[in-house]
Design a protein that fits this description.
The protein has 365 residues and is of the alpha+beta class. 33% of the residues lie in helices and 28% in strands.
Length: 365
């Protein structure tokens, strides 16, 4: 059957992974409405800021079996002194021709934008889903974790992409999590925790953004998030937050730490195939009654508080809150292999590696 490459077909872009992957691969899609918002040049602040992008789907026999998006994150290039385009949402059947056509389209886009390198997966930035899964296949993953079968890295490598920037995700069995003594963060030391609740959601999330930007400033893939970008990514989180799990740490009124931890949505998304329909309310009620898994989307400590035991104390408090709320397992999204401090925290907690991920790059010169 002849392969067809289409540009700009949002419906096919969403459908492609469901046709490309077997249910046993464990792929879970973001909500269809979120995919549509991400690709809307009038709604996504990344595009409103003037970053060019394009996306394609590969069709065989009339069915979409692969997809990719390519864009230039100009703010990242300026900050890090690079000339790179980024690719994301590369999901493809084990089909060599489809993979080549998709990756060639992204490479051609990068060249027309004057870029010298193509790097990914970024869905769509380093503070969203990032990486290509290279090990830990078949494990049950958590919200915001990339999931792909083993043929995806093989297809990338067959098309001249090389892996770099290794990362890991983690899982913690809360029944066996290590209890450790952490630095007390009590009012007598000037510290206080502010839970992220509905009534204070906007103010707390802005504080979380400021701490995130400060704490991640030295990360080589990070670009500070604007208020609009952060709101775009996190705005709908309010509807699924468990206020017992997320908080901002204040020191004499200044935000110095944050943990954003939410109930894992992957079971609900898998049951509804990431679509809102007539049965969604039923599945949501079942999910609320049975939720026992949570995931840390990110945690951060202000740079002047690094190395003082603050993060250990925040993680210990979060683990205690999860146990009190009767959660059983905790996922932690990607930590770079070069982040020795965070890896030590995972070891102290007793968290086990769940997935291995890498970024992939190709020289276009």
């Amino acid at each position: 059957m002849t392969l067809e490459l289409r540009q700009g077909d949002v419906a096919a872009f969403f459908d492609a992974p469901f046709n490309a992957y077997h249910p046993a691969d464990g792929y879970v899609s973001p909500l269809r409405s979120d995919i549509v918002r991400m690709l809307d040049p009038a709604k996504n602040p990344l595009w409103i800021a003037g970053n060019p992008f394009a996306f394609w789907s590969a069709h065989r026999g009339g069915r979409p079996i692969g997809r990719i998006v390519a864009h230039v994150h100009r703010q990242s290039n300026v900050l890090h002194g690079t000339q790179r385009a980024q690719f994301g949402f590369f999901d493809c059947a084990d089909d060599a021709e489809a993979a080549q056509r998709l990756l060639d389209a992204a490479s051609d886009f990068a060249r027309t934008q004057g870029q010298r390198e193509l790097v990914g997966n970024f869905n769509l930035t380093a503070m969203q889903q990032a990486g290509v899964q290279t090990d830990g296949f078949g494990a049950r993953s958590y919200t915001d974790m990339v999931i792909n079968p083993p043929h995806v890295p093989r297809l990338l490598e067959a098309n001249g992409f090389e892996r770099f920037f290794p990362m890991r995700t983690f899982e913690l069995d809360l029944a066996t999590a290590t209890t450790f003594t952490a630095r007390p963060l009590d009012p007598t030391s000037g510290f206080s925790f502010a839970p992220i609740e509905r009534a204070s959601f906007a103010a707390r999330m802005e504080e979380a953004r400021l701490v995130l930007n400060d704490g991640f400033a030295a990360n080589p893939m990070f670009v500070p998030l604007t208020a609009d970008e952060f709101q775009f990514q996190a705005g709908e989180m309010m509807s699924i937050l468990d206020p017992r799990l997320s908080s901002v740490l204040l020191c004499e009124g200044r935000p110095v730490g944050t943990i954003i931890c939410i109930p894992d949505l992957n079971g609900l998304l898998a049951a509804t195939r990431s679509r809102i329909g007539l049965t969604t309310a039923y599945h949501y009620l079942r999910y609320r009654l049975r939720r026992r898994r949570a995931v840390i989307i990110f945690y951060s400590v202000a740079s002047d508080m690094h190395g003082q035991g603050v993060m250990g104390a925040m993680l210990a408090r979060t683990v205690a809150a999860l146990r009190d709320a009767r959660y059983e397992r905790l996922g932690i999204t990607w930590i770079a292999d070069g982040n020795a401090a965070s890896l030590r925290q995972m070891e102290r907690l007793g968290a086990k590696p769940l997935q291995k991920l890498h970024l992939y790059r190709k020289d276009l010169a």
